[in-house]
Amino acid sequence: MLQAKQSPEASLNDVALAALTVTLQECGVRGNVGVAVPVNVRKISELRKLGNYISTATVRVDCDGSDAVTHLARYKDARRKGRMYAKRGAAMAARGALHIIASVSGRYFLDGAFASRSSSLMLSNVPPVRQELSVMGCPAKWVAALNFVPRTHQMALTLSGYQDMVTVTLQRRIESGGDDRFKDMLEIWKGQVLELAAGGRKTS
Fold first, then answer.
1. What is the pLDDT of residues 14-50, one digit of tens each?
2. 192 close to 15: Cβ distance less than 8 angstroms
3. Which residues make beta-bridge pairs with 58?
4. Confidence check: pLDDT of 175 > 60
5. Distance CA 180, CA 13 (A)
6. Cβ pair 193, 164 in contact under 8 A
7. Does some domain include residue 6?
8. What sign has the CA pseudo-torsion 182, 33, 43, 45?
9. Range of 31's domain?
10. Which residue intervals define the domain O-acyltransferase WSD1 C-terminal in the entry (predicted)?
11. In a domain, 4, yes or no
12. CA 129 centroid distance within chain
């Protein structure tokens, strides 16, 4: 059992963004992985606001000359044009599809309002994405859970799946010689995800 000190500076916002970065790194993403926080970032005190914040933050992932920001923009456009376009857009993204689902999963996990949309996780149906999620350590039952049309009784299930996914990546980083920062993140993440899961079931 990890005995990690709870750093007062590490907010849920910090943990979520750091976890996304670590997740992408553990997936074998080549190139520079990082999260650029907008200058006009507001102090996040509510979970709903946090979900909106992550959707507007610049998540930059250079991979084979590809940029996650481009893929995120494509996904937003796909949502406006419908499911078929979303599938086609994901196929065009190729390796970038993993970046989309990692980011979309993050927002789905943090923003119940977004999760209530039936098209919110359409891109998780793309075979390469599901395969990558399995390779990175996400249990098969949770990969399948990502394909559910979101409903209130399924929220906690998927939240738990995302927790497992992030916990595995952080644990790997610790075992590979990571510093205490990763231990702190893992402990904080475990505590915060339970609170989010409890709130997720109330989402309409």
1. 444 444 444 444 443 333 333 332 222 232 233 233 3
2. yes
3. 36
4. yes
5. 18
6. no
7. no
8. negative
9. 12-200
10. 51-170
11. no
12. 13
Residue 142, both tokens: 């949770």
Terminal Cα-to-Cα distance of the chain (whole angstroms): 36
Number of domains in the chain: 1
Query: Residue 109, CB half-sphere, CA atoms under 13 Å: how many?
Result: 30
Q: How far apart are CA 91 and CA 86, in angstroms?
A: 9
pLDDT in tens, 71-118: 334 444 444 443 333 333 333 332 233 333 333 333 333 222 222 232
- For residue 87 the two structure tokens come to 């599938």
**Residue 25 placed within a domain:** yes
Backbone angles phi, psi at 63, to 5 degrees: -145, 110
- Size (the chain), residues: 204
Q: Map residue 18 onto helix, strand or coil.
A: helix
Amino acid making up residue 111: D
Cα-trace Rg, the chain = 16
Read off the pTM.
0.25
Does a structural domain hold residue 1? no
